[in-house]
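Sample pair:
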Amino acid sequence: MSEHSLITLARVTERQRAPRMTPDDRRKAIVKAVVPLLIEHGQAVTTKQIAEAAGIAEGTIFRAFPDKCALMVAAAEETMNPQDRAQTFAAALEGAGDLRDKVERITAHLLERFRMTMAVMIAVRGFLMSGDRPADGPPKFIVEANRSLHTALTELFAAHRDELSVPPETAAIALRSLVFGSRHPGMDFDEITPDEIARVLLHGVTKEGEH
């Protein structure tokens, strides 16, 4: 048997031994592959590009999702409300010290995710408008994403309740407002840094607040 035949046989055997993915895992893998493509190509991304990135046949996409619109909505949902939010928060806070350090780290994490989220949402907005959505408000997954993030930030501040002059829920809203407001599309001024956001949140904008 030639060397080429042996390599081919090994690859076939490996594929045969590899555990089959569940439908849910397959959908997650496809969504994971499509998000970077949306950031790079926007709404012009093709299912062929998605299939190549995911290492699957193009037809497999439509066995996992009924159509391209459903896939784009799933990508937006995962970007807005990632299933690994708890793990990514924990990773961002690993080794953090005081409340100031935690706020600065989480701010940096949220700013990075916000850049990705905005790129994806802009790319899929046409699909969101054409898909099923409530007539009187945003899609359900956006509402759930806001609730999930608010809960996570509230828990962060709740651990330092004795240091706060406001309820943890209020501190969570204030931090979100500073983070997302500082990166709103269309802004033409210099971006404020995570350090500046943490300082303004915790000490205000006056010199008195620094004491």
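The longest helix spans residues 99-130.
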